[in-house]
Structures
1.
Amino acid sequence: MNLRDQIDTLQKATVIDRDGNKIGSVGQVYLHNSTGEPSWVTVNTGLFGTNETFIPLDDAKLALSLIHISEPTRLLSIS
């Protein structure tokens, strides 16, 4: 995922699963140590967005302000 120039967009994005379900809003963007490319985001989940869940960006697609991931929500460890 070549998103180095789009970190600002990632930080304001909403994460959507492969079925189109909203998972939550991005909390933090984590960069790969050697490439500087975004590799993970945390997503604010739970009541009032008080929990954070790590989501890998390996197969993710960014479109406008939405990050589409390939996993369904039910396979993610969201508390």
2.
Amino acid sequence: MSSQAVDQSVQAEHVLSVGVSIVLYRTRAIQIRSLVDHLFEQGVARVYLVDNSPPAFGAFDGWAANDRVTTIQTGRNLG
């Protein structure tokens, strides 16, 4: 087995089956990008960003898509 295959195998073992939900209100997602990156570095499998800001706020403006991040816009503060 090549060292690259071993590295990928080790990385796969470190992905936790943990999902993290972060609720935003009048906060731009790019402001918490380092937090999201850190969660992935720690082995989190998926992050859900839920934006409860008014529709015109644009919490995901400038956010670079990531297949492990699900973005949800509710358009209102659900409490």
3.
Amino acid sequence: MALRVVEQAGLTDVGRQREANEDNLVLAEPVFAVADGMGGARAGEVASRVAAETFRDARDPAETPERHVAPMRDRYER
């Protein structure tokens, strides 16, 4: 039995300790994802954005997020 999504919503919150929200959301049915910006980590907002964009842009069901993430991970891990 498949799960059918009839409503969707998304919200992130900066929390109590940070001044900027580094989280990103993907609300692109059938893909729903949250990328936690890891507040306080170096370039957490970049990692969060790249992860969300990767899921958002992967439209082909045969594609895996890893195929898109691996080259970016190599580029940003220095």
